[in-house]
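yo, SEC14-like protein 1 is done. seq:
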Amino acid sequence: LQAYERRFPTCPLIPMFVASDTVNEYKSEDEAIHVIERRCKLDIDAPRLLKKIAGVDYVYFVQKNSLNRRERTLHIEAYNETFSNRVIINEHCCYTVHPENEDWTCFEQSASLDIKSFFGFESTVEKIAMKQYTSNIKKGKEIIEYYLKQLEEEGITFVPRWTPPVACKLESSTSHTRRPVSPAINIPDSATKEGLNNKEILNTSSSPSEPTAGTPDDKLDADYIKRYLGDLTPMQESCLIRLRQWLQETHKGKIPKDEHILRFLRARDFNIDKAREILCQSLTWRKQHQVDYILDTWNPPQVLQDYYAGGWHHHDKDGRPLYVLRLGQMDTKGLVRALGEEALLRYVLSINEEGLRRCEENTKVFGRPISSWTCLVDLEGLNMRHLWRPGVKALLRIIEVVEANYPETLGRLLILRAPRVFPVLWTLVSPFIDDNTRKKFLIYAGNDYQGPGGLLDYIDKEIIPDFLGGECMCEVPEGGLVPKSLYRTAEELENEDIKLWTETIYQSASVFKGAPHEVLIQIVDAASVITWDFDVCKGDIVFNIFHSKRAPQPPKKDSLGAHSITSPGGNNVQLIDKVWQLGRDYSMVESPLICKEGESVQGSHVTRWPGFYILQWKFHSMPACAATNLPRVDDVLASLQVSSHKCKVMYYTEVIGSEDFRGSMTSLESSHSGFSQLSAATTSSSQSHSSSMISR
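structure:
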């Protein structure tokens, strides 16, 4: 306990622990009870962009320590003060004496995390919180031992126990029943989200016994290990055998190869229970989606073959297969719109399956175990258009699937020609990437990759691709913009045979003359931000945003009987009642925006009031030229294009709960507008409210 108290008011071993102030303190007369409450200032290791959005540099926690010297217990409770209306964090720690050995200290820790909302970055905050919590658990014992050693160096090796100050002491400690303590176990290396219970025995006299390695009968052939698995300690070898035997006894279906089992063990530092859990989840996932047969049964669409700027290219100096990805040349939005997330994910999975196959081949060719590959990512051409929000979301979901099912397959990631915009993309993506994987990243700006410590340290000169100044012709597609004629509707994307995820980013809608399509968004917090991104696939439309204090009637699907037109490829929902009057029942909050066929429109609106907001896409009739009775050529062409009085849009909307959205995310908004092929005509609505920006 003396060692623990030395952590305050600040601790150099915990860099994020900046300072602490005592806000309340209580001591009993006999000094057996000591309760102290502190307000702790923390510098959380969070992306700079996220801190800017949240508007804080530090977060504050309240920690209450309750020491009972009579019972020999210390209870620590902590909760967050900052953002307590958005995020609820509770932590409880307990130090007690082991009932069977008074020289042992038992430590129990539990925590819970509940994220209600955080400016649209809830998943990122969860990752950061879990990373921070796991790191603290790992360092807890190390910090205590550091201060114990400090006490020893000061000559303090014994601290007498507390005794009652009165002369007439209580007879014996038998009158005080000690709280039961459950058996202690080792703290696991990582934490789960909620309800964690971590216990560890800190033995000051002797270290806990190590688990014994496997018996000689469990040994693998030494030549087999050297040839296919690499260097393994007896403990690691035993873990592999035990996990494989468990799979053979319990798993129905194809048993993975030793190399694949080993990847999951390495990903969890050879903790068998944790490795078994993620491996079983992955095997179930593979069986459910027939991933084992993807290379034989699935042919990538022609769009991917033409516009996905990635492919395999020889191997690196360590014999690892080399995959080249020209991310800066890829039309992320075009691929998502033309293929959907399903096909993109399948293609990424096929790349990973091909990587596993190439690792096996290279293991045979080079005569040594090769279990991972190297990825070279060229960012030449990367700009703000790659930060298109739905595209980034799709990328993050792909990363999560790959991280869960292909651990320890990336040997090295070389990122070349990183532009100035790269830190923004990295800020959004990095929290979703495992710490062990991030350590394998090497990032080069500009032409730094050509100097010492650059590409030549990892790849032979003879196979450096031509577009990086090498002599080897690289057959990776050059990418480019995907033609909008290849874009597919939301309904077409939903009709895939097998879903690897069920959510579809875009929805499609049909707009008819006299029958607009409307979307209802309920806003609770006045300073929320409504964002949208839509493409006008057919005809010209007028885009409006309305506000109403009362909810409209339940949405009704237009029968379209008056038009005698059916809508096979999109919904038509009308919310504004015919008897409603503009200015009385609802109001316009943005000036109308006329959108032409083929245009991409992105924008946002900072809401001023709670209530109900209605996004409306309305049929636009082209007026004849006022200066002459003769119609213009553009009018004639437009009338031919929309002769059916039908328009079509594909749209995506999202609500961000932050009044600082525009100020903090200006760069992201500009990326939305810049992504369109019509970005040269990027404008802002000159008549819209100052809190809204609509861009083409």
